[in-house]
């Protein structure tokens, strides 16, 4: 068992509220103890905490009692983390990382070990898009009866309010924000599709594995139409388009190509892509990443 102090990665620390009385900050303070307790409860040996890691969880690389490698994940508490476990249970390793164990009290997830340093972003773009499309297609399954997942329609007002709040910081994007708000209000009612979606799918969320070449991780699951999931993939590597010529035409071709390859309506994919580009763009501006945010807003304007 590990006895060395456990330090949450700086990226995680920086992404959470600085208010020492906030629930997430109290969770962060208790996190080293939670990790040690879970290691003992599940008889795991700590190799190291994965760094730089993500902004919404701590992941520790561990060994199980029989020596099998695994990953111990502690998501930031909340609805999304609880639903991540439920989605992984539904997929049961089909297109996604396999959930080995979970703990209701701590929120810990024990996952099969993937090669965290090798995502689809390490591949040439054409190959990466092909592999990503094959992976996300496996995740689109019918949600089980009585599922806990939010629907795109059910989350409309919360999404619109969040977009308006973040958009107030990016004042120059006002027209795009209003267009995105209108789309977000109307799009869910225009489709009868009810698939379980990854919700945050992109090339960086697909890692190399031993059981399968590529497996998805880190879902923010939601139920709705496939175009919503695919929109995030359209936005992948948008910064690369800025370096080339004819970027607007290339962006529109990307929408058409992905829509056709996965039998998704082109117009709906374009609209969801515009919405997600604006939504993510203004949020990036709001948290201080103006360069990334403005890239996404420019992408939205091309559509």
From TrEMBL:
<protein>
    <submittedName>
        <fullName>Kinase</fullName>
    </submittedName>
</protein>
<keyword id="KW-0808">Transferase</keyword>
<dbReference type="InterPro" id="IPR006748">
    <property type="entry name" value="NH2Glyco/OHUrea_AB-resist_kin"/>
</dbReference>
<dbReference type="GO" id="GO:0016301">
    <property type="term" value="F:kinase activity"/>
</dbReference>
<feature type="region of interest" description="Disordered">
    <location>
        <begin position="1"/>
        <end position="21"/>
    </location>
</feature>
<keyword id="KW-0418">Kinase</keyword>
<dbReference type="GO" id="GO:0016773">
    <property type="term" value="F:phosphotransferase activity, alcohol group as acceptor"/>
</dbReference>
<dbReference type="InterPro" id="IPR011009">
    <property type="entry name" value="Kinase-like_dom_sf"/>
</dbReference>
<dbReference type="Pfam" id="PF04655">
    <property type="entry name" value="APH_6_hur"/>
</dbReference>
<dbReference type="GO" id="GO:0019748">
    <property type="term" value="P:secondary metabolic process"/>
</dbReference>
